[in-house]
Amino acid sequence: MAAPEKKLKIAIMGAKGYPYVYGGYDTMIKELGERLVARGVQVRVYNHRALFADRPRFVNGIECIYTPAIESKSLTQLTHTFFSMIHACFSDVDVIFVVNSGNGPFGLISKLFGKPTAINVDGLEWLRPKWKGLGSKYFFWASKLATKFYDQVINDSDEMRRVYLELFKADSKVIAYGANPREAVESKPIEKWNLASQGYLLIVGRLVPDNNADLIIEGFLKSDSQRKLVIVGDVPFEDAWANRLKNLKDERLLFTGYVTDPNELAALYSHCYAYFHGHEFGGTNPAMLKALGYGCAILALDTPFNQEMLQYGKHGWYFEKNPESLKEIVEKAESGPEKMNELRLIARSGLTQKYNWDYVTEQYLEVFFSLMKN
After folding, report:
1. Cα separation, 3 vs 26, whole angstroms
2. 270 and 204 in contact (C-beta within 8 Å)?
3. How many alpha carbons fall within 13 Å on the CB side of residue 238?
4. Closest C-alpha among 352, 164, 190 to residue 256
5. Contact at 8 Å (CB) between 31 and 178?
6. Do 45 and 12 meet the contact criterion of CB atoms below 8 Å apart?
7. Beta bridge partners of 257
8. In whole angstroms, what is the distance from residue 215 CA to residue 217 CA?
9. Which residues contact 169 (CB under 8 A, 6 or more apart)?
10. Could you read off the pLDDT of 226-249 as tens digits, one per residue?
11. Which of 25, 101, 125, 236 is least surrounded by CB atoms within 10 angstroms?
């Protein structure tokens, strides 16, 4: 009698954990991890211990390991991955999957142990305004090391693959981030903010400089729009830049802070007149995918990444990085309700197969199996 085939065992690390959903990487681990389990893969996720009061060993079939970290603004994430990598290398996992280019140096540990690895490197972290000086240099260096120490580098857009080829002379596999489109979302949840369907424009994202909320707000306030501008998001720490924005006094501005209820967030997306996307330094952006999935008319900063996601103007309009361009696009949108409606009607068709979570999972599985065989 033949021995049963060994199950593929994957360790995932580099984000906050499972089922904690806070950012893009956490969402990816949830969507990918649950689908891998459904396909018979053994999945282990390394959770940031301090974030979990309850620590069950298994959740929805996913094994959760709660590793510590040195708790500080710049060291938490890196030290958490370092301890997780050590633990995984001494375990029986077949492949280690790491997210975040900042974890690039830790691939040396897995290399010394002979463990196959893949890393999803995300965006141009070294260009983000929050990483100045040494922080910027570290992320550039770490991203370069990721191409040396990991067996497979994964990027989430063709444009990001081009950047890595140009800067680091390293090819990568493109696997996009997935989306969960939803139709027919009721408007009742937005009534808590006294909002009406299509009576507002929307920004969703952390209040950090590289998402350009300041630029969007300034341009919007220069316009003659009578709608509100709703800003969803915040930062999880005291920040002078974010506080300056939140202290702006204008009856057309509404800062909601974080919106954690998924039905409220879905309603805010689904019933906006237009969605602003000012994210500057990423590949496939989860907030943009949500906007497409909820059928938004999208007004996006003109970057190569946003051009790629919106199929070079098919699924949105672009603005330049100056307040006057913002003012113009707001007034153009206000004067063209039928054009905005056309963008809403075709938005979900922009979520091509590459943004389907099941397809994304199949691509990751191919990578994991190929690494295990090598």
Report:
1. 36
2. no
3. 0
4. 190
5. yes
6. yes
7. 232
8. 6
9. none
10. 999 999 988 877 888 999 999 999
11. 236
Look up residue 72 and give its amino acid. Answer: S
Number of neighbouring beta carbons within 10 Å of residue 81: 26
Tens of pLDDT, residue by residue over 243-301, are: 999 999 999 999 999 888 889 999 999 999 999 999 987 778 888 999 999 999 999 99
Phi, psi of 230 (to 5 degrees): -100, 125
Secondary structure (DSSP) of 320-370 = -SSHHHHHHHHHHHHT-HHHHHHHHHHGGGGS-GGGBHHHHHHHHHHHHHH
Does the N-terminal peptide bond of residue 236 adopt cis geometry, omega within 30 degrees of 0?
Answer: no
Looking only at the bridges linking them, the beta strands covering 274-277 and 253-257 are: unpaired
Query: Residue 150 has which token pair?
Result: 């990991």
Burial of 184 (0-12, 13-18, 19+ CB in 10 A): exposed
Summarize pLDDT for 358-369 with one digit per residue, the tens.
Answer: 999 999 999 999
The β-bridge partners of 202 are 230, 275
Please, what is the Cα angle at 122 between 241 and 218, to 5 degrees? Answer: 30
Question: How much is the pTM?
Answer: 0.88
Handedness of CA 125, 120, 285, 168 (dihedral sign): positive
Q: Which domains does the chain have, with CATH numbers?
A: 9-178+356-373 (3.40.50.2000), 188-353 (3.40.50.2000)
pLDDT-based confidence at residue 4 (cuts at 50, 70, 90): very low
The pLDDT of residue 123 is above 80: no
Paired strand residues for 254: 230
Report the C-alpha gap between 18 and 20 in whole angstroms: 5
pLDDT cut 70: percent of the chain above it: 96
Residue 353 has pLDDT above 70, yes or no: yes
Residue 52's alpha-carbon distances to 13, 155, 221, in angstroms, are: 15, 29, 41
Q: Which helix (H) or strand (E) holds 245?
A: helix 240-246
Distance CA 21, CA 26 (A): 5
Taking the C-alpha atoms of residue 36 and residue 46, their distance in angstroms, rounded to an integer, is: 16
Amino acid in the structure at residue 332: K
CA 296 → CA 169, 171, 345, 367, distances in Å?
A: 37, 34, 8, 33
Contact status, residue 82 vs residue 76, Cβ threshold 8 Å:
no
Tokens of 153: 């580098």
